[in-house]
Amino acid sequence: MRSSRVAGEADGAMSSAESSAEASKGSAAPGVGGAYRVLARKYRPTNFGDLIGQDAMVRTISNAFEAARIPQAWILTGVRGVGKTTTARILARALNYELPDGSIGAPTVNMPSIGVHCQAIMESRHPDVIEMDAASHNGVEDVRQINDAIRYAPMSARYKVYILDEVHMLSPQAFNALLKTLEEPPPHAKFVFATTETRKVPVTVLSRCQRFDLRRVDADLLVRHLAGIAGKEQITVEPEALALIARAAEGSVRDSLSLLDQAIAHAAGPVRGEDVRQMLGLADRARTIDLFEAVMRGDLAAALTELRDQYDTGADPAVVLTDLAELTHFVTRVKFVPAVADDLSFAEAERKRGRGFAEKLSIRVLARAWQMLLKGIAEVEASGRPLAAAEMVLVRLAHAADLPSPDEVIRALDEKAPPARAERNGGAPAVSPPRDARPRRGAHPAGRRSARAAFRGCARGANACGRAARGLDRARRAEARPRRQGRARARRAAGALRGWPSRDRAAAECRPDAGQ
Ligand SMILES: Nc1ncnc2c1ncn2[C@@H]1O[C@H](COP(=O)(O)OP(=O)(O)OP(=O)(O)O)[C@@H](O)[C@H]1O
Ligand SMILES: [Mg+2]
Question: How confident is the model at residue 348 (pLDDT cuts 50, 70, 90)?
Fold first, then answer.
C-alpha cells in the first residue's frame, strides 16, 4: 500500500506543535522553507468546528461519535472543493484522537488541542491512516492489497483508516473485490470514501456505507469565510469584491479561496470590486444591460450596433449572449423575490435597472427570452461565424418581443368565437371554450386547416408562436375565398390576430421610463 499513499500532499503541514495549534485556528505559518502555500491549503480545516456550510453532516457525525454508534464506512459526496477530503482527514483524526497524558480513551469530535496522531494524520503520513488515490490505483490488485493488510492491527493508532479518494474511479472488479471486506471489516478498521460522482459507485458499495452529501456553500457564508481569511492575512478587501468572488465560486470553498488568492495578487494592495470584475473577465455590465434593453424594446439597430461594438472590443459573441441570459435570469428572480436586487455582487446600475425591467417585462416575455437565448448560445458556439449567428439570435429575440403568448392567442380566439351552441341550437349543451376554439366539422378544409394550425400553434410553447402566426396568415388568405363556413372560421382567427399587441406597444411597455 505504500505506493498508494498520496505523495507530497501535506496541506495541513504543521512544523511544530505551536504552528499546529495556530493552524487549527486558521492561520497557519507559511509552508516548509518559507515557500508560499495557497490559501486553500493554508486554511484547510483541522476539526469539524472549522468546516463551514456542512452543519447537517457535522451534527450527525458528532451525535454518532457521542453515542458510540460509529459505522465502519462513510461515503462523502459533493461537488469540487466543498470539503470531502478535508472531512475524511478530520474523521481519521477524530477516530484516533489521543492526548499524551492518555486522558482520551475513545473516538471524539472534541479536539481542542493537537493529539498524539493529529499532526501525522493531517500531513497524510500516519502509518495507520492510508490515503489511496483511487483514480490512479483503481485495479483489483490495489484492493487485494487492502484486503491483505487490513487483517493486521494498527501500529500505533486506535483504528486503521482507509481513505479512498475519487472512489468512483475503481474498476468494477476492484469494487467487487472490496465488497466482502467492506461488509465485515475487522473491528479496528474504518473506511472513508470520497467522490464527486456517486452515480458511478455501485449500489452494493453504497448500501454498505453511511452516505453524506456535502452541500454547495451559501454565498453569504462564503463571503463571511473569505472576510475572516482576508482579516487574518491583513488584506483589505471590499465587500463588493468578496460578493463577486463568492458568486463566481458557485458554492465551492476551494474555488473561492483560489479566486481570493488571485485577486490579492491582481490588485497588489487593497482589493476593490473593480479589480475582481476585471480579473473575472466580466464584461461591462452596463453595456449588457443596454443591449438587453434595446432587444426588449425591439430596437434592432441599437442592439446590433451594441453587439458589434462589444465584438470589436474583444467580447466573445457566445459570452455576450450568456451575459444576456444571466441578466434575464436575474430580472426574473427580482420579479418574484425583490430582495435579490439587494445582492451586493450585482453592480448598482444592474440592481436599479433590473428592478425597472422586472416591473415592466411580463414573465412570459422573460421566459421566452431565456429559452431563445439558451438555444442561441448553443447555435453560436456551434457556428463557424459566431458574430453572424449571435446577430440572428438578437433579431429573433427582438421580433419575439411583440409576439403574443400561447394563452393570449387562446384568449383572443375565445373572445372572437361565435355564440355558444346552446344559444344557437335552441338550448342544446354549450361547447366548452377550448373545444369551441377548434375548427368544427363541416368547415371548409382550407379554413379548417388554417384555424387548426393556429390553434395548435397557440397550444405549444413559446417557439410555436411563429407557427401560429403563419397559420393565422393562411387563415386570412382563406378568408378571401368564397367558401362560407371556411370563411367564417378564418375571419374569427384573423380577428384574433388583430387583438395582438403591436411592436410599438411592446416597445413602449418595455421602456424603463414608461409609466413614470
Ligand atoms: N466546508 C469547508 N469549510 C471550510 N473550508 C473548506 C470547506 N470545503 C473546502 N474547504 C477549503 O477547500 C480546500 C479543499 O477542500 P477539499 O480538498 O476537502 O475539497 P474536496 O471536496 O475534496 O474537493 P475535490 O472534489 O476537488 O477533491 C480545503 O483545503 C479548504 O481550504
Ligand atoms: Mg478531494
Answer: confident
Nearest listed ligand to the Cα of residue 86: 1
Residue whose CA lies nearest to ligand 1 atom number 28: 44
User: pLDDT tens digits, residue range 242-299?
Assistant: 998 998 898 999 999 999 999 999 888 899 988 888 788 665 677 888 999 999 988 9
Question: Rounded to two decimals, what is the model's pTM?
Answer: 0.66
From 42, 44, 48, 52, the mutation candidate for ligand 1 (largest count of ligand atoms within 8 A of CB) is 44
- H-helix or E-strand containing 325? helix 317-336
Residue whose cell numbers read 415592466: 360
Q: How far is the CA of 83 from the centre of ligand 1 (A)?
A: 3
What is the pLDDT averaged over residues 44-51? Answer: 93
Mean pLDDT, residues 415-442: 45
Which residue's alpha carbon is at the smallest distance from atom 7 of ligand 1? 83
Residue 479 has φ and ψ, to the nearest 5°, of -60, -30
Relative to beta strand 160-165, strand 73-77 is unpaired
Q: Which three cell numbers stand for residue 52?
A: 463551514
Cell of residue 86, nine digits: 478535508
CA of 165 to the centre of ligand 2 (A): 6
Q: Give the integer Cα–Cα distance in Å for 361 and 289.
A: 14
Find the helix or strand (DSSP H, E) in which 189 lies: strand 189-195
516 confidence band (pLDDT: 50, 70, 90) = very low
Using a pLDDT cut of 90, give the percent of the chain over it: 53
- Please report which ligand is nearest the Cα atom of 131: 2
Measured by CA distance, the residue closest to atom 25 of ligand 1 is 80
| For ion ligand 2, residues whose CB falls within 5 Å | 84-85
The beta strand positions in 65-116, using DSSP E, are 73-77
Sheet containing strand 160-165, edge to edge, reads 129-133, 160-165, 189-195, 73-77, 210-213
How far apart are the C-alpha atoms of 390 and 375, rounded to whole Å?
Answer: 11
